[in-house]
Design goal:
- It contains two helices and ten strands.
- By secondary structure, the protein is mostly beta strands.
- Among the domains are: 51 residues; 53 residues, no CATH class.
- The strands form two sheets. It has a five-stranded antiparallel sheet with strand order 1-2-3-4-5, with no helix packed on it. A five-stranded antiparallel sheet has the order 9-8-7-6-10, with helices on one face.
- Strand 3 and strand 4 form a beta hairpin.
- This is MORN repeat-containing protein 5.
């Protein structure tokens, strides 16, 4: 079994770096996710007992009193760090400019989703997973979609 300091790459591409004991994460270690985010934690028998998640853009998750993008402050992290843009050119996503979404697809956070094939690919268009009914409904309801229809403003008569 794995023992001591080391690293282990999971089939998903996530890498663990840190202490190992009897084949499990033990002591100080971190998970490095393919999207660039990191989870640093103290581990006991493979379970985190205390940790901190940092998103790829540097935003740190706070377990208590998390106010990022809540109803009172809807700014993206890049807007918090760099300031708001003038009216008319506001940001659509934390990434500015936003990713170009393939026609008919949705940006679901870790890749693009095609509702016809129900397949999610990463941003380099490599297969990630098939969406189940629950994830499909959530993506359709909440995620940003590539425009495939013309919308025009119709003033009130």
């Amino acid at each position: 079994r794995m023992e001591g300091q080391g690293s282990y790459t999971l089939p998903t591409g996530t890498e663990y770096r840190g202490a190992l004991r009897d084949g499990m994460f033990e002591g100080e270690g971190e998970l490095r996710f393919p999207n660039g985010s990191v989870y640093r934690a103290a581990w006991h028998r493979g379970v985190p007992v205390q940790g901190k998640y940092t998103f790829a853009d540097g935003l740190e998750y706070e377990d208590k009193k998390w106010h990022y993008c809540d109803g009172y402050d809807r700014r993206f992290y890049t807007e918090i760090c760099s300031g708001l843009k003038p009216a008319g050119i506001s940001q659509l996503t934390n990434l500015d400019p936003p990713r170009k979404i393939p026609k008919g697809c949705y940006d679901c956070g870790d890749g693009f989703y095609n509702p016809e094939t129900r397949v999610i690919v990463d941003y380099k268009l490599r297969f990630l997973r098939n969406a189940d009914d629950e994830e499909h409904e959530w993506i359709i309801r909440t995620c940003r979609k590539a425009w495939d229809e013309t919308i025009e403003h119709k003033p009130k008569p």
